[in-house]
Amino acid sequence: MPNGNTEAKIFTCTQSKELAIKIATAFGVPLGNVITSTYSDGEFQPSYEESIRGTRVFIIGSTNPGPENLMEMLLMLDAAKRASARHITAVLPYFGWARQDRKDKPRVPIAAKLVAKMLEVAGATRIITMDLHADQIQGFFEKPVDHLFASTIFLPYLQSLNLDNLTIASPDMGGSKRAYAYSKALKSDVVICYKQRAQANIISHMELIGDVTGKNVVLVDDMVDTAGTLTKAADLMMERGALSVRAICTHPILSGNAYEKLEQSKLEELIVTDSIPLKQKCSKIRVLSCADLFADVMHNVHYNKSISSKFIM
């Protein structure tokens, strides 16, 4: 049972409203009422239009850039803290700014650590998120972090395809751990792409480690941004004799001309979650909702039940 008679209330930031409605429905409570006032210069102010004193508040919002998404989450957290909510959980389907998780050259920030501290200072007493860019980002928080894996969504879909000669692929060396975890669950082979970047989002060279001849390949990654890596990897694998190439990416950032790249590529399909709303339609994108996963975990958190099964790849 929850502590005392603590009531659970679910609210959403603007960018995640569609997903939040699904989560609230699955959780079994109505989505809370928040209005946002906007000044002419772009400054905005969210306001809870119902009492949240003594409640457990879940605030749903991905913090993908632009910066207003993160700012809205911070303001919502601060408002909940000042309104005397007992527990304040930031539900971040996508934890933005996570690629800056270390100093990879002199005189740069560690943005992921900065964002973690801002969330805590703003009032978050717990974080629920999914497929962090790097697992160690959990260590940037002093509050409890529930790091969920979207594999619980993707694996049943992959198994339903009944693909022969299935091979899991990582689009880079950094994603090899994730690829091996999927291959273990699916009892398949693994190949890895080795890439070199001229600069951020620009690949100068890519090579394939492993054999894909006669294989149905599934690329696995935590996010897809410009789609340059995925489309280049798919084209390379088809040139090397693959029967088909699909991709699984949890977070569909899809910036720049990513949609055009996907349509023109040799990818069979791109499977994503709805952690970030799509900007436009694409015939090659299949969206699997993460609403039930988050609703289940939020329910268990509220009622002090185990959620360890959601951490298993």
Question: Count of DSSP helices?
Answer: 8
In CATH, the architecture of the largest domain is 3-Layer(aba) Sandwich
CATH class of the largest domain reads Alpha Beta
Mean pLDDT across the residues is 93
Strand order of the largest sheet: 10-9-8-11-12-13-14
Strand content: 25-35%
> What is the alpha-carbon Rg in Å?
20 Å
Summarize the helix and strand pattern as letters: EHEEEHEHEEHEHEEEHEHEEH
Main sheet record: 7 strands, mixed
**DSSP strand tally:** 14
Structural class: alpha/beta
Number of domains: 2
What name does CATH use for the topology of the largest domain?
A: Rossmann fold
**Separation of the first and last Cα atoms:** 28 Å
Helical content, roughly? Answer: 25-40%
Give the low-pLDDT segments: none
Q: Could you explain the architecture of this structure?
A:
One of its GO terms (biological process) is 5-phosphoribose 1-diphosphate biosynthetic process. Its EC number is 2.7.6.1. Residues 9-123 form the Ribose-phosphate pyrophosphokinase N-terminal domain. The chain has 313 residues and is of the alpha/beta class. The protein has two domains: 8-148 and 291-311, 3-Layer(aba) Sandwich (Rossmann fold); 151-288, 3-Layer(aba) Sandwich (Rossmann fold), CATH 3.40.50. It has helices at residues 17-27, 67-82, 111-122, 151-161, 176-186, 228-239, 258-264, 291-302, and strands spanning 8-12, 34-38, 44-48, 56-60, 87-92, 126-130, 145-148, 166-170, 189-199, 202-209, 216-224, 244-252, 269-273, 285-288. The strands form three sheets. It has a seven-stranded mixed sheet, with helices on both faces. Strands 1-4-5-6-7 form a five-stranded parallel sheet, sandwiched between helices. It has a two-stranded antiparallel sheet with strand order 2-3. β2 (34-38) and β3 form a beta hairpin. α1 packs across α8 (291-302) and α2 (67-82) packs parallel to α3 (111-122).
